[in-house]
Amino acid sequence: MEGEELTEQETALYDRQIRVWGADAQRRLTRAAILVYGINGAVAEFCKNIVLAGVGSLTLVDDRGVTEEALSANFLIPPDETLYEGKSLAELCSDSLKDFNPMVRVSAERAGDISGFSGDFYSKFDVVVVSCCTLTTKKLINDKCRRLSKRVAFYSADCRYSSGEIFVDLHSYKYTKNKLDEAIECELQYPSFEQEATAVSWSKLPRKMSKLYFAMRVIEKFEEKEGRSPGGVSITDLPAVLKLKNELCEAQSLKESQIPDALLERLVSSQIEFPPVCAILGGVLGQEVIKAISGKGDPLKNFFLFDAFDGKGVIEDISSRDA
Amino acid sequence: MASQQQLSAVKGAKVLMVGAGGIGCELLKTLALSGFQDIHIIDMDTIEVSNLNRQFLFRRSHVGLSKAKVARDAVLRFRPNINITPYHANVKDPDFNVDFFKKFNVVLNGLDNLDARRHVNRLCLAADVPLVESGTTGFLGQVTVHLKGKTECYECQPKPAPKTYPVCTITSTPSKFVHCIVWAKDLLFAKLFGDTTQDNDLNVRSSDAAGSSENSKDVFERRKDEDIEDYGRRIFDHVFGYNIEMALSNEDTWKNRNRPRPIYSKDALPEKSIKQNGSVEKNGSTDDPSSVSAMASLGMRSPQDVWSLMENSKVFLEALKLFFTTREKEIGSLSFDKDDQLAVEFVTAAANIRASSFGIPLHSLFEAKGIAGNIVHAVATTNAVIAGLIVIEAIKVLQNDTKNYRMTYCLEYPTKNMLLMPVEPFEPNKSCYVCSETPLSLEINTYQSKLRDFVEKIVKAKLGMHSPIIMHGSALLYEVGDDLEEDMVANYAANLEKVLSELPSPVTGGTMLTVEDMQQELVCNVNIKHREEFDEEKEPDGMVLVGWSQPSSTEKKEENHRVSDVGTSNSSRPIAELNEDAEISTMEETDVVPTKKRKLSTASKNATSPSSSKVPADTDNHGKVEEIDDDDDDDDVVVMLDGNPDNTKTRRVVTSKNLCV
Lengths: 323, 661
Ligand SMILES: [Zn+2]
Description:
The complex is a heterodimer. By secondary structure, chain A is α/β, with parallel strands linked by helices. Chain A folds into two domains: 8-191 and 273-316, Rossmann fold, CATH 3.40.50; 195-268. Helices cover 42% and strands 19% of the residues of chain A. Chain A contains twelve helices and ten strands. Chain A has an eight-stranded mixed β-sheet with strand order 3-2-1-4-5-6-9-10, with helices on both faces. A two-stranded antiparallel sheet of chain A has the order 7-8. In chain A, α7 (135-147) links the parallel β4 (127-130) and β5 (153-160). In chain A, α3 (41-53) packs across α12. Chain A is globular and about 60 Å long. By secondary structure, chain B is α/β, with parallel strands linked by helices. In chain B, α9 (228-248) crosses α13. Chains A and B meet through α1, α2, α3, α12 and β10 of A and α2, α16, β8 and β9 of B. The complex binds zinc ion. Zinc ion is lined by residues 152-153, 155-156, 428-429, 432, 434-435 of chain B. Zinc ion binds at residues 152-153, 155-156, 428-429, 432, 434-435 of chain B. Chain B: Residues 201-221, 255-295, 533-661 are annotated as: Disordered.
């Protein structure tokens, strides 16, 4: 593999993980640039993981200030309010993350209007992770990444109280898989978020499909329809959410029992993320990003869903039934 | 998950965490974020550089400090109003007794060694406190819940045995690189730099050879006024040349094996490169012995490179020279340490030269270090996921939500679409000697085996007791303690050397021994069955404990196989036991009683039963070189051979003997 050798310092620091994924993968990691747009608890966990793993750079964008919700599951925010003055969430988190691994360049950027970021901006990165954004913004960034000639891996991470999901779009992805000492070249085609979240007909999805997948779509739609900020649904919205569910089920010819009311109730019952779920989503997301950068291991395709209620961490490949 | 109820359960809970390492850091953070207010954390380790890639509460400036204390301070920085009580101590300390454990609502383990895990399991059972247990290796991990009487205990399923290698494989017929590493580290390194009064199998073949005029004891000693370069070459030629020639002379050995090739320094090195680069001057200036490096003085950079035979030979000679020129004071008391750069270089080079002889592929220093140090693979992400799962289970435990307890496996490849797979916990194993009162049976030759054999091989090694009391009916045969009367100590010492049938209260077939560990509050009854003969290969202990089993290799295969069809029923066990690498045996500093252990183990060497072994008399105590994982809380493990009395970090390894053919 081309590129610089790892330094002695890097070898010592990353010793244990190099033993897991090899020196080549580590070298690729140290050259990778990551963009994070929107920092929820799960993404804060992800940032920690990826900084520890030793990526080249991490750029944070989140103009919001500190809120009670943000504080609850984000250990990167110091509890000292006097530090918040004039600082965005991204800046505060960036300060904490820098400390985790001096070999990673961590920085914060102001977004202003998201449409202000052109394709050129995204092309500086190898990986883009979004959270806490509206459906429109998610689709927009996903779309901009897909239009680039260079492959930019796109991920979104959403946590709703004790459940959450990760969406992965690696566009067209080639990797090597080791099976019984034999290296096999593999290629995967990923659909965009828009194709999946909106275009796939629910009735065509298998019956054993994770119910959480549908529930997440319902709430996402509700937020968009009502013009809510991301995560801005509460228990008082439950009747309206259930109504929307019924409408969607009818339109998509899906049995209403496929999206239990109790599940939706749970998802909207608290606007605070459940920290153990953040740790799990952030861990899985970190691992997936490391896989995508290093080209080692089977990447997740294309949804990961976790529900603390049943403890299952499920992968759903929704694109396979597409087309 | 009723939020309010959950919150109050969490707020009022008093939690004990054992381990502030890879899982521990993540766990402490997630507990604090989840609203836990009263967390106690025990860890005896201090912070090392190789921890920093995943133990995110620690910084470079913390290297050398207590993990428990630094972790506490780091978490208080983002959650200043909670109580975290750190203990920089060994969980096996008597202070952490049953009463201590009883104070907690739940115990959460973030350990990575079997010994401490078993200990905590027993204390939790005795104190009747629920235990959430966890482990990770690379991308794999698991979380299990143990509640006395409701679910299986940590020890209901037998744990995998440490790998062992027959001594002849190490001394004469290596076939894998790991055999060369064990030879280089446990035999050659120990012989040259360790305590020379210890038995060592290194010369097994040469001293065996008829007509050998050389006294094997003298070969390794540097002669008076011997030039260091000459000495290095002489050792090289002896161990890689002469010893191989001697081994070759035993034709029987090579009937079905590839014959090794003797390697002499004159063949491995260009004629005049003997005088190597002026390393001594370069290294002489530094005061820190750990910075001395043969690679550095030879201008070799990457630990990832696989060196040629010539390079290995150079490193071998250079490292040996550097030991004698810059670290002479340590010679005679050194034991292998994976963090000792020069030791790793020496062992890598020696193992590679030996591998060359035997046609075994060579390895880089990085790889060799991993094997020699038995370093367990670890990544931050798996630890984070596992910590999240631990907290989810802990909250269920606090809410008494027994029916929803799950053991969860974190998989590298999805099974049934699942990356995180919950399984209903198993019921307690009715024949578990730890959580049920089922007696064990021991087949033993009561006319040959001494009480010491029973104490070492069964009570300590198999039953995992640290301070045992052994009773036969009402007769006290043995106990350990600080407050014993002198005459009792003498009495017990005498008992140890007696064969079972000649003890003051004779232990013969049909009798029963009661073994108790006061701290663990564990009592086991052992029915004695007399048996004359034991298979030296298959039953090297010379005794067999029935009702306590280690999985054989076939069982293990089957368990692994079952990974593929998990989830179909609750009765299938998804993964045998993850973390096999990680969870074996003593921790570097967990071992509070290294002195005692050492004393016992040294003595036990002389207690092995007679055998028809062809191994020469001076080596007959080493039957098997057993790989013992010597773990710091979550990684680093060391393989050691018997007889490192100055090594407080490692436990040793030898069982009985074994035939070399
Ligand atoms: Zn048990």
